[in-house]
Every structure is written in C-alpha cells, then in structure tokens.
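Example 3.
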Amino acid sequence: MLRIRDASVTFPASDGQDVHALDHVSLDIPPDSIVVAVGASGCGKSTLLNAIAGFLPLTEGTITLDGREIVAPGGDRGVVFQKDTLLPWANVLDNVALGLKYRGVSRGERYERSRHLLELVGLADFAEKPPYELSGGMRQRVGIARALATDPKILLMDEPFGALDSLTRETMQQLLASVWARTGKQILFITHSIEEALTLGTTIVVMSPRPGRIVARFDADFVRDFAEAGDIGTIQSHPRFIELRQEIRSLIHQPEGARKGTLQ
Amino acid sequence: MTLAANSRTSFPTAAAQRRPSRRLRRAASASTFGISLATLAALIALWFLAAQFGWASPLFLPSPADVLTQFSAVAADGYANGTLLDHTLASLGRIAAALGVGIFVGIPLGLLMGLNRWVKGIFSVPIDLYWGLPPLAYLPLLIIWLGIGETSKIVLLSLSTFAPICFAAQAGVRSVPAERINAALSLGASRLQLFASIILPSALPEILTGLKIAIGAGLSTLVAAELIAAQSGLGYMIMSAANFLATDVVFVGLIVIAVLAFAFTSGMRWLEHRLIPWKGKL
C-alpha cells in the first residue's frame, strides 16, 4: 500500500513567487489497483510521480510504501518514463535484465526471467536486437518489461504512451491491462488523456494546476472488462464511460476561479 | 468526386517530392572513395607534369622520381643521425608516451571533474590557463626546467594531449541524460554500478572525440617541438634537410607525417565503429 499524506512540493521561482507544483495532496494506492492521475499540463501529476519515485524531495508531507518512508529512488518502485531510457549499447535482453544484474542475480536466472517478461510483452523474438532497431511502441514495451523484471511493489508510469501514435497506443493500453490482470501490480499511471484514464484506471484522480492539487476522484471498472474482452470501442461507448468522460472534461476545463469557488 | 480527384492528383506530387530526397540520401550514404582516389591521382599527375616541364625549379619542387629515390636512400642509409625508421619511431614513441599520459591521467581526472564539484573547482582553473597558451610558447620554459632531452618534449606533448581528453571526459559525464540516471537508480543501482553501467559508457563517445582532438594537437605540437629542439624525429629530419636545401628529403618527411596522420584518423574511425556503433542513435 502506497500512502501519500499532505504532500507538497514548492519550487523557488526567479521572480520570488514560489511555484506550488504540489499542494497538500493525499492519496492511497492500494494493492491490485491502477490509480490514474489526469489533468492539464502543469497540474503536478508528474511532480507527484517523481516524488514517489524518489527523484524529487517533498517540501512537506510524507509518502510511505508498506509503512517505510520514501526518501530516495529504489528498486521497490519500477518506473516507466515517457521517453524510453533504454541503454543503446545493450541489447533488448540485457536492458530488461539490468535491474536483476544490479541485484546480483546470476546470469542464467536473470536471462530466464527476462525472456519470460519479453514473452509477456510480446517481444520474445527481439531479445538480441539493439533497442534502436525497435519501433517506439516496442521500446516502451521493453521499458515495461524492464520495470517489471525486479518485481517492484508498485509500477509508476509517467505518460508512457504519450509519444505513440493512436493505434500503437491502443495496443499498449490493451497490453498494460492484461499485464496488470495477470500480475496484480499496483500501478500509478499519469496521463493527460481522459479516455486513457477511464480505460485503464480503477481509480481516477483529477488534478488541477496552480497550485497542483486533486480536485476530484472517481472509481471505475472498465479496465477489468478491457483486460478480459478487450474491445476498446465497446468500452468507450458505454453510457457510464461517456458520462464520466464528460464530467472529468468539465472539471479539467473549468476556469480556475470557478473551480476554487466550488471547492471552498 | 472532388475528394477522389484530389487524392489521385496528389499521388504523383508526392512521388516527385520524394525523388530528390532519395537522391540526397544516396549522396550522403554512398562512398566517396572513388572520387577521392581520382583527386589524389590528379594531384600526383600535376606534380609529375610540373617537374617534367620545369614549371618550378627542382630546388623548390623536386620531381616525384627524385623524392622516391631519396625515400629509399633515407630509408636505407639514413639522414641526420638516423634512418627514416629511426626518426619515425622516435616521433611515434614521443606521441605514444604523451597519449598514454593523456589517457591514463586525463580520462580519470576528467571523469572525476564531471562527477565532483570540488575536483572540478580545483583543477579547471590551472587547466584552462595553460590550455590557452600555444605549446611552443612555454617550450623554452620547459627546456630551462627539464633540459633539452626527451623529458621536456614528452611533458610538452603530454600537456597538449591531456587537456582535450580531460575536457572531453568531463563533458561526457555531464552529457548523460538525467532520465537515464533516474532509470538506473529506480532499478536499484548503487553508486558504483551507476558509474560503471551508465555514466562511463554514456561518456565514451565524447571521450573518443576528445582522443581524436588530442591526436591532432599532439601531432602538430610534436613536429613543431622537434623542429626547435631535438636530435631525432621527423621534425628534426625535415629541419636538418631544409638547412641544406635538400627539398626532396623535406618532401619525404612530410609524406611520412601525412601517412601517419591518415593512419591515426583511420584507426580512430575504426575504434569508434567498434566501440560505439550506437552513437547518435537513441
């Protein structure tokens, strides 16, 4: 269980007016859930993820994972970045096995586990290729396999499909849903796409900028259908889906003054 | 109707636009080897003609045949206290020693300067200061301090190869993408693992570029230093020959240096191809 309590991150700005990237955010990510943070750019969703990953210190508040406070990056939290961060000098298999190598897992065992994960993401035939010979979608799949290889407690995904074309994106969403259904990992997923948030999230938190905070949260269940039956068209035309999409859209597009009014 | 017509007419346009770009791509990727070889042949032919028809006095431009004869004479009997091989080995030994110092001191120090604020703070000022000086300007000082022998020349050359390698290693460390480091940390890398598996390989392309610059700087400093103060080496041989207006021997020396420089460049290209085939990708 990941617990975020009153987390704030403040950046000093050159004009003296501090930027409140994250303002007293509290959130729980229970096991077996996909929490999706959605919002316009600048709403603090990536800041939140970076703080959980340990890349960024909190100004105030605490984040704990299974009771242990997070102070630095660590192997218990797997991260998938928007831009793939694979090592160009290592082949796909060695990239996936990197975290296991850091842990001192023997060569045979880490390759066996990595091959298994490459199968899970449908890239078993590409194990020996260098990453730069793969397409963007394939590289992102390698990134997911790499993050899963060390069996982290939570998977943090920062707009991982944001740079992909829409067809590849749907395939990747499908893949993530089925990986989640099979592994039961807790996942924090960041996106600016409302459709993606609703398709993948068991919980959707809507964030707003200046200061970055959570303005609403919804529970959804489309991802289970998606993982089983898998037709994105049917899911996205469900009346409840359309209703929620409209509601979230109006929350995100509300003028800042009006939103503050409704909160107070 | 209009839509269909539009899409049909757009086809040849697209093809026409693609054609020049494909030609450009071919020009960029195709080998220029044949063209370069033809240029070389034309230059040599011009040299033959100039010597043949006496466009310039042999004192200024010896004929290719004279240079070739002199080449075998210098190779066999020697010139200025040594055979051609002796002079070449003397020069190569100096540059190898200097590159060794540059690599074994410059790379570790540069990496440390990239990683640690204190190391960078301490060493960047002295390196910046002397790197701005032309090596030949402080050669007299080195001769006063270290004498006329090998030491002063190797120190001079080491100083000229060290700085570019050190700067390159430092820049290499700083060029590692922050996300790559974060990714490794979130996979559980220790500081040592981060350095060995991420920072060092990421810095390698910059280090090799620095090495190329160092070879160039070393070679030009080498010959210049040998022109001024030496008893052996290609530079010394050229200077001795020039004093006796033996222009053909000067040519022999220049050709050997050109071949050496070409060999170094080719070697570096081969090394880059072997070590960092991924450069510029991803």
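Chain A touches chain B at residues 53-55, 72-75, 77-79, 81, 83-89, 98-99, 101-103, 130-132, 146-147, 150, 156 (CB under 8 Å). The two ends of chain A are 30 Å apart (CA to CA).
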